[in-house]
From TrEMBL:
Residues 1-23 are annotated as: Disordered. The lineage of its organism: Bacteria, Pseudomonadati, Pseudomonadota, Betaproteobacteria, Burkholderiales. The keyword DNA-binding applies. Residues 51-70 bind DNA. One of its GO terms (molecular function) is DNA-binding transcription factor activity. It comes from Rugamonas apoptosis. The keyword NAD does not apply. Pfam families: TetR_N. Residues 11-21 have a biased composition (Basic residues). Keywords: DNA-binding, Repressor, Transcription, Transcription regulation. This is TetR/AcrR family transcriptional regulator.
Amino acid sequence: MLPSGADQARPARKSAGKRRIPQQERGIKTIEVILRAAGEEIARGGLAKLTTKRIAEAAGLSVGGLYEYFPNKESVVHALASQWLERVKDAVDAIHPSRTGCVDLIRYLNMVYDAVRPLYQDVPGVSVLISLLASVPALTALEEQIDLQVNALLTDAICRLVPYVSKEQCSATARTITILDHHLLIEMSVRGPASTAVYDINHRICRHALASHLMLLNEQAQPASWAPPRPEAPPDVT
């Protein structure tokens, strides 16, 4: 994780509870608008300049309207980070081979990368949210929980695609993929579009190397196929 500054970590120590959980579609959409507005405000000015007034104005609400859903800005930030983590998990779950019918490991790893990449590049304020994950205990606990779920999804998928490789090896590869994707996508987000092509090429090489290694292990571990028995020689009638 990227280390967070003291000015970023301090505000999120307050209560992160919501005032109410909306059940109706309109309330759920309002929550989405608030979280999107908060992300955009974080992207523009960071956490130091974030206030409930700024969030409310960006969302087209009064401050009182915002308070119907969130008691303070810390709870908004907590909800935004939680939503991002859940979306990462959902993206990985959606491309599991049992859902997509994918039978090729290299293609699957490419699909994983393509699924999570927009969540790092297109979500406003994501770099600040990621920095919070290591500094706010409640978010750290949630990140660990989601991380275990994502690793389990990846492990199960890899085991399906290379069934003769041990689960331990598949799990280790899944963890490697998680770390590789996460840190390279953070670097791409920080360095900007100019570095995207280079990182994409390097990332593709790493994915292919990991997949090729597992595919070779899978091939080597397959039971030897027995050659069909030779037909018996005709009896000697001489």
